[in-house]
């Protein structure tokens, strides 16, 4: 099946990209709250997939993932993925009262975090934006719970990639409010998380290719731009092929997960595996083709490498996604 963005979706991507190009700083400590406010107020990125009756824009998950790809391209820290996963988990598992209370808050730009505490866990590591969220939702085997963000014990977990923020969260359901079906919310969160990570990986890979091609035109060796050497042209062409194939896998998963089709889970795993491997390869080539400047703090190449590593673990490794694809 062929996939292409509609004119409206292309305009959304262009608008998000333009704003991020002007305002995004990948080196902020947590995330740029003013930039997040602009994205939510001027473009409505947090509200895209939330129904209108709950304060959203009434589009679909696919539009949210289009915006997320542009966030990946910018390399900027952003709570968009964590808030998106939280809103989709609420749509899948929360009761109507909880949806009516929490979804408008997420649509308005409050940061959400989803904690998968199924399997009897009470301490959950590596919760995306878990220490920053004001809407904190946990899924257990016997329910979906709204945690008290002020009373819940949670602690930032340092990681190699400063653009992806993780936290350890203690889940105490005795002090929480039961708001729905935990396993249903967790299943939806896993699918949306995999598709969301794939979108971020595609955006990051596209940024890596762009900066590599630009550098190859500027860097002169033996009196010629290095991009004129045939061997490097071939390597960058291979990078382009990987980016485009990853985008196809990501969009296929996004359409399927958004529409709830029968093959949504399979396509999410395919995208999770392929996009992760593609970004890992492209990040390595980016560092190689930039040479020594790639490992300096001032250049963004090291941010691509770090994000490739972190996204390769978030919502499942490439190996885990491949193992989950039925043969």
UniProtKB/TrEMBL annotation:
Q: What is its EC number?
A: 1.-.-.-
Indicate the family of this protein.
Belongs to the acyl-CoA dehydrogenase family.
The species this protein was found in: Nocardioides abyssi
EC class (word): oxidoreductase
Example GO molecular function term? oxidoreductase activity
Offer one Pfam family short name for this entry: Acyl-CoA_dh_1
Sorted alphabetically, which Gene3D superfamilies does this protein's record hold?
A: Acyl-CoA dehydrogenase/oxidase, N-terminal domain (1.10.540.10), Butyryl-CoA Dehydrogenase, subunit A, domain 3 (1.20.140.10)
The UniProt keyword set, sorted, is:
FAD, Flavoprotein, Oxidoreductase
InterPro entries for the chain = AcylCo_DH-like_C, AcylCo_DH/oxidase_C, AcylCoA_DH/ox_N, AcylCoA_DH/ox_N_sf, AcylCoA_DH/oxidase_NM_dom_sf
Q: Specify the Acyl-CoA dehydrogenase/oxidase C-terminal domain's residue ranges.
A: 181-322
Cofactor(s), by name: FAD
Which protein are we looking at? Acyl-CoA dehydrogenase family protein
Domain Acyl-CoA dehydrogenase/oxidase N-terminal positions: 6-110
Positions of transmembrane segments: none
